[in-house]
Predict the structure.
Amino acid sequence: MTAIAEVPIETLIACHQCDALHRAAEPPTGGKARCRRCGTVLIAPRRGALVRVLAMAITVAVLMLGATFFPFLGITAAGVTNESSVFDAALAFSAGPMVGLSIAVAALIVFVPLLRMLLLIYVLGPLAAGRAAAPQAAWAFRTAEALRPWSMAEIFLIGVAVALVKVAGLATVVLGPAFWMFVALVIVAVLKDGYMCRWSIWQALERSAR
Amino acid sequence: MPVVDLAGAGTVGAVTGAVTGAAISARDAGLVACTRCTRVWPQGQARCGRCGSRLRSRDLHSMQRVWAWWAAGLLAYVPANLYPMLRTHTLFTTQENTIVGGAVELAAGGSLGVAAVILIASVAIPVGKFGAIAFLAISIHGRQRHSGHRRHRLYEMVEFVGRWSMIDVFVVAILSALVQLGSLVSIRPGPAAVTFALSVVFTMLSAQSFDSRLIFDQTGQEQDAA
Ligand SMILES: [Zn+2]
Ligand SMILES: [Zn+2]
């Protein structure tokens, strides 16, 4: 243990969950540094994480664009066919007083996840290239982090699975290309979150700002 | 005053066994921590110099917001269960399903697993969440019988699991977009879809407003987790 007065303030971090004060120290690559009081992972650096997270964010953004425009699901019953894109699902509530819900659903499953990826690309692009951080990069990363709980692509996918079970008895279901793109983007997005060490990115942003 | 090292961090190996005292909070050290980027600053600073977030050592007003969103969420949850979530129009009939009604029908049709998913996401999680947030909000006042760690684990679960309640809203969205086969069969969303979505959003905001650091303030003397 060290007395606080001896430690420079920029080398201290406090757990965001419980406020316990620690001396920041990077664990070995691939390891995790946890809060001593509540166990929250505070630092978890990975080798080449910047470039990988950037690549994954670009992948997710491109897949998201594709997934919105290609046909997502189709059903056929008694010769009648109907196709639906991800956008159609969001717009399902657009009739009458439910418009607000349509906008919210579109935001939760398409716009927020996409915006998060674009912000991450904006923040990580220059850092991964070894250049100075982009203007307002701190704001962009903070916003991307704040949007995290509102990005619900993976929850939408479970919803799709449930809906398919409900429809299965009613009609024949065809999975469109957008469906597979959406599955892929959810997998990449989850992997990306596991790879991203927020502390390391904040450190990199702070270093580049000086 | 002592500062502890992070558990599992590189330089700490040798120290781990030696750290026997409880962790101190940034506030006790005369510092204010940024909850967004974990940097600490001298107490009294208004904004984080690294990420720009507003700094508040403890957000006591947050409890009012917690309760306000909590009540709004509960208020929206009641009609969400009373009104239909789905309306299925076929050639001659119109069938309306509430959340629970839809799950029961699924179960009767043999899809027990999917019925369970709906019941967990739309009933068990929201109800559990109302209880958990209320318990946590009350527990920060007065003496505590439950350890900070247990309550913190509960808080983490509420934050992690709460979003998943949105499943049923998405199910309704997909069904309403997909099942449009003219006069044969068509599905339309019911009013409960709106109130249920609102209820999920409000309870998420309630949980986010909760300042989890308050949980540990009374139990500061507790031994560390490691
Ligand atoms: Zn902690
Ligand atoms: Zn900050």
